[in-house]
Q: What sequence folds into this?
């Protein structure tokens, strides 16, 4: 299952995403949350804290600036650029996924 939360600024997308992610994870599902926002705060809403959320955002900025190498696969992206949050939610802060693998 894939779930995307979209809407205008200030409509509660981050809060809604965090509630959905943690609820599904608590039910035993494997959950990977991707924060694609230009001002990424999903890590804070998931309970990762300010420092870890900033660290993930900084890694994304390094990739965007060309100072780090992109991951060649989905699994490596999550392993290298993700962080484990409460309830087993895995979070990555991304700007885009190039050449996504089907499935």
A:
């Amino acid at each position: 299952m894939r779930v995307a939360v979209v809407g205008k600024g200030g409509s509660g997308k981050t809060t809604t995403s965090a509630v959905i992610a943690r609820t599904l994870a608590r039910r035993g599902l494997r959950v990977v949350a991707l924060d694609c926002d230009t001002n990424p705060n999903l890590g804070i809403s998931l309970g990762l804290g300010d420092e870890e959320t900033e660290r993930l955002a900084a890694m994304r900025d390094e990739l965007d600036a060309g100072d780090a190498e992109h991951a060649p696969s989905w699994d490596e992206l999550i392993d290298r650029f993700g962080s484990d949050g409460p309830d087993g939610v895995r979070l990555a802060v991304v700007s885009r996924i190039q050449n996504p693998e089907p499935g």
